[in-house]
Amino acid sequence: MSAPFPAQVVNVLAALLLLIAFSMLSQRRVLTLIKLFAWQGAALAASTAIVAWSTGQTHLYYSAVLTLLLKVILIPWILHRLIDRLFVRWDVETLINIPTTMLIGIALVIFAFALATPISQMATTLTRSTLGIALASVLLSFLMMIVRRKAVPQVIGFLAMENSLFFAATSATYGMPLVVELGVALDVLVGTFIFGIFFFHIREQFDSLDIRHMEKLKQD
Amino acid sequence: MNIWTAAAFQILQSVFVVLAAPVLVGWVNQCRAWLQNRSAPSLLLPYFTLAKLFHKEAVVARSASPLFRATPYILFGCMWLAAGIVPVLATGLPFAPAADIIALVGVFALARVFSALAAMDIGTSFGSLGARREMMIGFLAEPAMLMTLFTAAFISGSTQLTTIVDTLAHREFALYPSLAFAAVAFLMVLLAENARIPIDNPATHLELTMIHEAMILEYSARHLALIEWAVAIKLFAYMTLGIALFVPWGIAPAGDWHALPAAVGALAAKLLLAGAGLALIEALLAKLRLLLAPEFLSTAFLLGVLGMLTHFLVQG
């Protein structure tokens, strides 16, 4: 019944990722949200490094270092700068209240676990049991993008979803080829910059980062 | 193991819990006083308070029904029974087959129903206000508590506390993410159920936000002493339950007199740490608004459910 020790550590980190996904879902403050995002990146880097060490896949070391640099240090720093410039340290508004969001989140987790169980039973990788958690985190980040009304939390949700996808790739097939990962990392970085520019444009246009304003097509 | 040894163990544990519970409260209060930079009260202060209350004359409101007089005894009895079921010092006690974890939650619920009824019995506004709040906290905390206990039950394949503790204490070392979730959820439920700081403030006596104190405002003398003692035993039972589920190492099997001193020592060390930890949590957190309590407890429920789900997914 008990798995080898590296797999146990990866399982614990996966559980931590799930926990972080939930706390992001329930978080009201933008600053804490960014902190949580950085922690998610740290857990991801640690789990990738452990998978690399226990399976001897050297290219995973590079992705772990890349994750650490990009998602724990650089992007949170950029986001910090952004919310400083935009003066958006206000409380995040959610569309539905938080206990309801949590219950929907539990339903999503059950769905993801049910979906992943047959797949992981066929797999032989060290990390097969974490696939369900990765899938659940993807869905939870999706949910976060849906229930948030402001642009900054939505972008953090998007970045969290990228994190979970990366984790899913690691747990299903020991990661993508390094070229693909480099490309994705660059995309995320460029995406963050573009989002930053868009934030300023949205605010200039509507005097607010509330994306409800964007539902109107014309100025009347 | 013959029946007399088992009975001796059971009696020993029950008496030990009743006598040791006020010290735990005293220790938590002492730690909190240190953290707040006050000079700490004596460790034995809860005993002196109980002795003082027992020597006073009981005053009961004219409109009180027999229920009001009976409730302190029922509360004390419930908590003592709970303390007899939880494996504090030893597993395999004769009381243990009488109730599993679900019945244990039921015993706590029984005590809660009676204290709420007694609080409404007098008809003061504070009493019914406290009772309503207590029931709200209770109905949110109970499912979270059950989910936490179910996680442990799934890991060991039984709802008997003795079996759970035996399995968890004698397993090979393995990291259980599900147990980690359950432990955090249990801690949150412990804080809520024992009227500790994020939900209720045990130090206040007359505040509009109080919950537990509002319910026992009308009690005096020996009734109040019994209730205070029952509250101490409840805290003790919850803490030892948490210890038994999540850090069970060092517990003695029933009938083994040689393992007993070590078990007492291990328990004392764990309780010292747990009490200090509780005081630290109370010093660091601020009391939540009452309307945020459902959010706090739904988080506990969520963690409990996540623990159970994670157990199914990663088998551990």
Determine the N-to-C terminus distance of chain B: 33 Å
Envelope shape of chain A: globular
Structural shape of chain B? globular
Strand order of the largest sheet of chain B: 1-2
Tally of helical segments of chain B: 11
Structural class from helices and strands of chain B? mainly alpha
How many separate structural domains of chain B? 1
Beta-strand proportion of chain A: under 5%
Helix-residue proportion of chain B = 55-70%
Gyration radius from CA atoms of chain A, angstroms: 18 Å
**Could you list the spans of chain A in which at least 5 consecutive residues all have pLDDT below 50?**
none
Number of separate strands of chain A: 0
Separation of termini of chain A?
65 Å
Return the string of H and E elements of chain B. Answer: HHHEHHHHHHEHH
Quick check: average pLDDT of chain B?
Answer: 84
Report the order of strands and helices of chain A: HHHHHHH
Work out the oligomeric state of the chains in this entry: heterodimer
Ranges of chain B where pLDDT stays below 50 over 5 or more residues in a row are none
